[in-house]
Specification:
heterodimer, A: mainly alpha, 21 helices, 5 strands, 65% helix, 5% strand, disordered N terminus, B: 506 residues, alpha/beta, seven-stranded mixed sheet, three-stranded mixed sheet, 17 helices, 53% helix, 8% strand, globular
Chain lengths: 514, 506
């Protein structure tokens, strides 16, 4: 049923309006109040065209990187420059992540070089692929229209953009998480060899990208078991599905044996990250949950903005009331379970180690939440124009959040090491020395200032030596230990050497002594 | 005049009276195991004297919260005792008087009702149109259908008096009552009459289903409220032996009726009081959850308001009667729960007032805590209580239903005041057709509340744009969203009547 009324006349304006109406109707359903199930879906061709446009825009937003490399990224880059043997050794004894992203980065460095663009390339690619993958998941679960709206949200999502730009494994986790769900859905619907192979590959990639992928994989195992038991109870047990599941579970176990041994050694050898962004590790509380949820949807913002966002929690009560009487379909239940259960599991784990309740560890939940919101738009709003308005308004909100996240210097996750080191490089002579705090800053300096002599701040002996400028580069000053160490040394240096200037960059301070 | 072929009352049923997928009783019991500790967790924290902010506001908050808790516990208790009865056909041939009380309703609405009543199977059916409107068209309608037409010289006691009058003019051992818009299923008696084999049963009540939910936003929201009552609540009341008569779609035993002198005529909700009388006399009641008649819900806000005012006045004035009644404790509690439900508008008023007071620079009920601490205690209880309503309603209770009820908070407030002042009310029949114009007057108190909330928010944001203000503005936004949803039907242009014929089926 197509209810778009053709306009009278053939003027260019009328033609344009007719085209716009058709497109709008095609994308966002027919006008009028037809039941949702009776609406025609967006056509295949239009969907592909719109998806391509959304993906290009999403790629553009990801390529516009306004920040430099930060500490964790610098560590990954350092590891990627080692020989394969040394890199694994380094990971085994000095890291807390599985090796897939490191391997890709290792190859990437050797193929594309050491520029920031080249280093971010794997994340750019994975982060951009999340957009069509989410569309496909939305299409598989609901319809093309929902998939397109979800893809638009993913393109503009501040947090997805942020981690698509980071030289870390989180964009991989997001992509492989979405793919794992998509392939699982396909396997349940059609347990062919190809679908099983795709599912096994996607979950393996997820698992070898980040240990938290296990949370989603655990949920998937429960979903498989529930489906199998239900079909068995109805006498419709599919042998292909049962056998495939048995194989996939066996392959999963085979992967877990070496991986868990690897992880066990890693966690025994290391004691957490070198530096921790403030705001999340202060302790597990409702505020931490609220602020992480606000970040998950709207990206990183200044503490004040986050506080204001968290203060809007009564609106969640409105959402809970709006959900009354909204019959959750099986698809939405599946999506809800896949989004919420890993979150709850992480919350439970975080009771024992509150540093774990950190938004990047449940990044996989973000595209699923976006898909749920897209479904909310297509499922609840019947009028196409209102639907378009709602989808547009939410995308606009995401873009505002993205702009603030990317451009606001008060973003607590923004560490302007590049800016600070550039300032140092401009003034540093051949004999300049950089003293850094915390100790892992050496990796950042290794990347941005490989030719300048450097040493940890703790190793500096404060005495006057004419002609050798000394720069102190300090960050993570909200960490008491690092702050005290920096403060003590700066006091001592100030006694022996004249302080020429102090430069403040986001989350970074430079003192220049002569 | 004959009924239009696309009469909504002939449309397919749009409700599953008893969820087929799961047992509400079992699920509610499971949730209660979770809900009671969560309620203790929240109230144990809330009632700690350390929480007192402004003492007066705190006392008001506690009153509201305790009232809501009592309603929630009552709801859980009721639903946990669900009893699902099957239809029971009659075991012997008998006569049934079918009453269709009428008072100035449009004949085209009554036409189908009478036609359907005439078609009821399972007994010797004698249909009587009880016309308090003394409308010649109604007399003509009755004649055309070949049914009895009864009028009386006065309209004393409104609907109750009308039925009582007809009692003296008829003599079948059983009486079925259908409101003028309720189209009975032909199998009505085949489903209910068998339960009268138990001589203690005074009446068999069935759901009051609204068939016009697709054509009216108000009817849809109003039905969603009804669906919760005629779903889990009514089945639970049946399990507790506390079903009360709802005035329509009900089968009475004449002997029971006569034992209490018919309907009480001094009440606005004669059915509620009649039930108390009957239960006091030791009669029992039965609830069949199947839809056996389809009626029309209020189609516009003014009609809804009028209906709710009548129910609120009637039930609140029935509270003292329930308190005095010589009934087993569980029955008394059930009547009280139903009666005092109509005080819940006060809690809406109270919750709306808190952000306004805070934004205008006043105090707050709870002091010395931060949001995370409050949420840690409140959120689990809130989520559990909400889940219980969603589960018990099997998805039929909607946000629109909640919003419509909340936006008419003032009805409860006004009804309480009138009841306390013993101001008399009059029985107003709920109009069966929607108004053709917007009805802002019908929601004026809610609109005033919206204006106050918005103005207080603006004032607060201009004065102190901090997190505390944002929190209270968010609360205000929550209330404004609820109120505006509830008011929307009165503010939007009424829909044109449907032009297409409906799908006819069972």
């Amino acid at each position: 049923v197509h209810t778009v009324k053709p306009l009278e006349g053939n003027s260019p304006r009328a033609l344009l309006q007719r085209l716009r109406s058709t497109r709008e109707a095609e994308l966002f359903g027919p006008r009028g109040r037809l039941p949702r199930r009776g609406e025609p879906d967006t056509s295949h061709r239009t969907a592909l065209l719109v998806l391509a446009a959304i993906t290009v825009v999403g790629l553009g937003l990801r390529l516009a990187v306004p920040r430099g490399i930060w500490l964790d990224e610098a560590i990954s880059i350092h590891q990627a420059h080692l020989s394969l043997h040394d890199m694994f050794r380094n990971l085994y004894f000095g890291d807390r992540h599985p090796p897939l992203h490191h391997l890709v980065l290792w190859a990437d460095v050797r193929i594309f070089g050491n520029s920031e663009f080249a280093l971010r390339l794997p994340s750019f690619v994975a982060g951009t692929l999340v957009i069509p993958s989410l569309y496909e998941l939305g299409r598989e679960l609901y319809d093309r229209r929902t998939g397109l709206i979800a893809a638009a949200f993913a393109a503009a999502s501040p947090l997805l953009v942020w981690y698509s730009q980071e030289v870390r494994m989180y964009a991989f986790v997001t992509l492989f998480g979405v793919l794992a769900l998509l392939t699982q859905l396909r396997v349940i619907r059609k347990p062919s060899m190809v679908n099983w192979a795709c599912y096994i590959l996607a979950t393996a990639a997820l698992l070898w990208s980040n240990y938290f992928g296990l949370l989603l994989i655990a949920v998937q195992q429960v979903i498989f078991i529930v489906v199998l038991v239900q079909r068995w109870q109805r006498g419709e047990l599919d042998r292909g599905l049962a056998l495939g599941y048995a194989y996939s579970a066996a392959i999963l176990v085979l992967q877990l044996v070496p991986l868990l041994r690897f992880a066990h050694n890693q966690f025994n050898s290391t004691h957490g990250a070198a530096g921790s962004p403030k705001g999340t590790y202060d302790g597990l509380s409702f505020y931490a949950v609220l602020s992480n949820m606000a970040w998950a949807l709207w990206g990183y913002h200044t503490d004040r903005t986050t506080e204001l966002l968290a203060a809007m929690w009564p609106l969640l009560m409105l959402l809970s009331l709006l959900l009354l009487g909204r019959g959750g379909s099986r698809q939405t239940m599946l999506l809800g379970v896949a989004a919420l259960v890993p979150l709850v599991l992480l919350l439970i784990v975080s009771v024992y180690d509150n540093t774990l309740f950190e938004v990047r560890y449940f990044l996989i939940v973000v595209p699923l939440l976006l898909l749920l919101i897209a479904r909310l738009v297509t499922g609840w709003i019947r009028k196409p124009r209102a639907r378009l308005l709602a989808a547009g308004a939410f995308t606009l909100l995401l873009l505002v959040g993205l702009a603030d996240q990317q451009l606001n210097k008060g973003n607590p996750r923004l560490f302007d090491f590049r800016g600070a080191i550039n300032e140092i490089k401009a003034d540093a002579g051949p004999n300049a020395v950089i003293a850094y705090e915390p100790p892992d800053m050496r990796y950042v300096l290794e990347y941005y200032a490989p030719h300048i002599k450097r040493q940890p701040l703790s190793a500096v002996v404060p005495k006057r030596r004419e002609g050798n400028p000394l720069f102190v580069l300090a960050s993570f000053q909200d960490n008491k230990q690092f702050f005290n160490e920096t403060n003590r040394k700066i006091g001592q240096l100030d006694f022996f050497r004249p302080l020429v200037r102090k430069i403040k960059k986001p989350q970074t301070i430079v003192w220049e002594f002569r | 005049m004959s009924s239009q072929p696309w009469d909504v009352r002939l449309r397919k049923l749009n409700w599953e009276p008893v969820p087929s997928r799961y047992s509400v009783r079992h699920r509610v019991r499971l949730l209660i195991i979770l809900g009671i500790p969560l309620a203790v967790w929240y109230f144990g924290w809330l009632l700690n004297p350390d929480r007192i902010g402004s003492p007066v506001l705190y006392a008001i908050l506690i009153s509201a919260e305790v009232f809501n808790l009592s309603q929630a516990l009552g709801f859980w208790w009721t639903c946990a005792n669900e009893r699902v009865r099957e239809k029971r056909p009659p075991t012997e041939w008998t006569a049934v008087d079918v009453f269709v009380p009428v008072y100035k309703e449009p004949p085209d609405i009554v036409d189908l009702t009478v036609a359907a009543a005439k078609g009821i199977r399972g007994a010797e059916v004698r249909v009587h149109v009880l016309d308090d409107g003394k409308d010649p068209a109604m007399a003509e309608l009755a004649a055309r259908h070949g049914v009895n037409y009864i009028t009386r010289p006065d309209n004393k006691g409104a609907k109750a008096g009308n039925i009582n009058h007809a009692l003296g003019k008829t003599n079948a051992p059983f009486i079925a009552v259908f409101d003028s818009d309720h189209v009975a299923d032909a199998g009505f008696l085949e489903a209910t009459l068998g339960w009268m084999d138990d001589p203690k049963v005074a009446f068999v009540q069935t759901p009051q289903y609204y068939a016009n939910t697709d054509t009216s936003r108000i009817a849809a929201a109003s039905w969603a409220q009804q669906a919760l009552f005629f779903g889990a609540i009514a089945r639970g009341k049946d399990g507790l032996g506390a079903v009360f008569c709802c005035g329509t779609n009900v089968l009475f035993r004449r002997a029971a009726f006569e034992s209490v002198g018919g309907f009480p005529t001094n009440s606005l909700t004669e059915d509620f009081e009649l039930s108390i009388h009957l239960h006091e006399r030791g009669w029992s009641s039965v609830y069949i959850p199947d839809v056996l008649a389809r009626g029309l819900g209020p189609e516009d806000t003014a009609s809804y308001v009028s209906q709710q005012q009548r129910w609120a006045r009637g039930c609140l004035s029935g509270v003292p009667r329930a308190l005095r009644a010589k009934l087993p404790l569980k029955l008394k509690l059930q009547y009280l729960l139903s009666g005092v439900y109509f005080l819940s508008g006060w809690t809406v008023l109270i919750y709306m007032s808190f952000p306004v007071i805070r934004l205008l620079g006043g105090g707050q009920p709870i002091g010395g805590i931060d949001a995370p601490e409050f949420l840690l205690h409140f959120a689990p209880y809130y989520i559990c209580a909400l889940s219980m309503a969603a589960l018990a309603g099997a998805g039929s209770y909607t946000f629109s239903a909640f919003a419509l009820s909340a936006a008419n908070f003032w009805i409860h407030v006004l009804s309480t005041i009138y009841t306390v002042m013993r101001k008399s009310g009059s029985f107003v029949v709920t109009p069966k057709k929607g108004a053709a114009a917007r009805q802002p007057q019908a929601v004026m108190p809610a609109l005033v509340a919206v204006a106050i909330l918005v103005l207080a928010s603006i004032y607060g944001l201009v004065r102190h744009p901090n997190a505390s203000t944002i929190n209270n503005v968010s609360f205000a936004a929550l209330h404004v969203s609820i109120l505006m949803t509830g008011c929307w039907a009165a503010l939007e242009k009424p829909r044109a009547p449907a032009l297409e014929p409906a799908e006819v089926g069972a």
